[in-house]
Amino acid sequence: MSPGAEAARRGSRPAASLSRAELQAAEAVGSLMELWGFRRQLGRIWTVLFLSERPLAAPELCERLQISTGLLSMSLAELRRWGVVKGATVPGDRKEHFEAETHVWRLVRRVLAERERRAVEGALAVVESALAELRGAIAESAGDPRVRAMARFRMERLEELANLCRVGLSLLKALIDGSRADVSPLRALSEALSRRS
Amino acid sequence: MSPGAEAARRGSRPAASLSRAELQAAEAVGSLMELWGFRRQLGRIWTVLFLSERPLAAPELCERLQISTGLLSMSLAELRRWGVVKGATVPGDRKEHFEAETHVWRLVRRVLAERERRAVEGALAVVESALAELRGAIAESAGDPRVRAMARFRMERLEELANLCRVGLSLLKALIDGSRADVSPLRALSEALSRRS
DNA sequence: ATATCCCTTCAACGAACGTTGAAACAAGCG
DNA sequence: CGCTTGTTTCAACGTTCGTTGAAGGGATAT
Fold it and tell me: What's the burial of A184, exposed, middle or buried (CB within 10 Å: 0-12/13-18/19+)?
């Protein structure tokens, strides 16, 4: 079929196709963001800005995305906190305008660094504290073999979790620093785990 | 301080330390799972099973985790769907018992393959359909320069998004297939993006 | 068959979350 | 100064999501 057939079939003018494409993409990015634990609107707003040649002001964004000014304001604040959108002043217009950070990989890096890394570090800290608790239990058990055996077993397993965290952290750091990342440590760990069970 | 000092300070017996360590770890894994878009209970349950030498039955899990039988049943069903927990029958006990899949990397792989990959593929499909829509708009515009310029710009940007999806997919595939993963394509793309802006 | 035990399903509740609209606020302008 | 215009904050609303407890279903033993 001819290139414009699809749009023609729907009886829509070219301009409508433009905004339909925009919304489709916004929705796609929004869904992805949602899957990754962010608010869907953050993805939608960023996408509309990313697909716009010039910076856009609030009213225009509200209209295109069909959201209230309040929600837009809050979402933009969060996007700015993540450094994903920045304000821009357009000559002869009092309104503040916004434009998307277009260095996409930089965005991903920032998120990885500030959210995932923090989370994994937190988990690792907890696991290590649990390990300490178990060391204490062994010392206190004063020879009760049931307790000692159980503590030992759990320590082994927790050590595996801790190692997984460490490998994950180094992988994250590799990604963040932009160097090569090698998953073979993960595989090695996995194989070590399989062997034991 | 001596190894058991912490537990001693809290005035708890070694056995209490054992389950405290268990719950701490369960909570840590639960939080991580939550961050990644799963239910927190899935992580908690898996962890308790992972830290247990023998398979556990429902009542024991309910008691340790303080959740209802209904919730446990649903969560276990989901864990089994992900292949993360499997049932086991214990000789002389009618109850069904459960044990954790201990090949942790295999778990991660499965999730990456079935969830993230699907999502990125879906997003890519939508972006490509948006690109098609824009091609149609250009064809239909019959020379209107405003429309054409806008469509062209959006197509460029959408192509960037599509490429990012493709790079992400290949990275995911590399992780899933367990081979090395190189993030340099991502960096190259990122730099291409920076240059333009 | 009936009874017992265990697992699953589901309606209903409550908490958490996203969203709105209006009110407060800030900033330029007459 | 007020008046206008643009932005942020926030209480209230509606929805979604996790969780419970009880009812239903399926085994196995008596």
Answer: exposed
